[in-house]
Amino acid sequence: MSTPVLHPRLAAHLADAAAEWDLAAHATGPADRSAAEEGVRAAYHAAGLREPRQIIWFASPAQAATAAVVLSGDAEARAAVRGFGLLPPALLDLNAGPLVRDPVRSAPWEQVRAQAASALTPTAWAAAWEFVGGGFWPQVNRLVGEIRRGIGRLAADQTRPARVRTATSREPHEPTDPVEGLLRRATLDAVLGQHDAPWLAFFDGLARASLIDLAPLDGVLRVSREAGWWWPFEHVVLICERPAELHRDDLGRLHHAVGPALAFPDGFGLHAWHGMPVPAEFGATMADLSPAAIRRQDNAELRRVMLEHYGLDRYLRESGADAVHKDDTGVLWKADLADDEPLTMVEVVNSTPEPDGTYRTYFLRVPPWVTTAREGVAWTFGMQAAQYQPHQQT
């Protein structure tokens, strides 16, 4: 694929880079630790820093973010996360020095970005970014956001076993727990490793077309190809394994019916249903749905997911919903839902027969304020009830 703004040769290089980095962004399985550590050292050398004395590996960004709070926080912050049980005791007294994210990652990043800005017109920049990042940037960015929220929610989830915790946040929210705030802020200090892939694909494509020099970012690139998130301190680097499992739906959203959609080797993970965070037991619930089980769900958002999975028309048929109106356009049905708007649908019959001579029945969801079947059918065409006078329905 190319665009009129991009030279075909540049488009081809961008496409190759995007395909390669898309794989890196969603890679699972053990990191290549040796290659990643070489990348870390290269990034420190490029920044004019001494190599870190220690490179400490963690099984998940949850563990590493907790360690980052300990290494960068004050005594109060250390005390707040000390009881998490996620960290080796020796780490609590380690002198890591200050964070050096700016010289190791931000400064070379800005160097390369400035080269790209000089090499491309604003129009070409927008086209190149859309070409590379338009596809997988939203997916990766959403994944990063979910991981950050999941790490933050660990602070509110301390009643679970210490080393097998699964984030259960259902909605984005501002952290109110101080420890949650510490953890969320720690995630903002991370270099995202494989999840920096969309921007690295953009830069890499331009470099393959000889438009920019990627040397300043060589170390960062090498780590991103081989490992997950990392936190560079002056003397110590905290670095993470990649996920052990990643399950997505056709739209690239986190989704798995049985088990976590994203799981790291230590058990930290995220459960999701087509991108929506759900409790761990939710997938099993979906395998044995019934109208009664749907009505018992007190979370309106989860109940909507259950309804869509069960089938809105099936729920109407099996839940004892009321037929509240009938005319020559169809039948208007309503079913009350606790703490939510009623499920309102119009049952219509296709006026065109099927090949076998039968007529199919459809259910059209309409707004809850609809009071007649005609009003509901007219609404699906963007009309008022009085305007809906079809000569022939198809």
From TrEMBL:
Residues 183-394 form the DUF6745 domain. InterPro entries: DUF6745 (IPR046633). This is DUF6745 domain-containing protein. It comes from Sphaerisporangium krabiense.
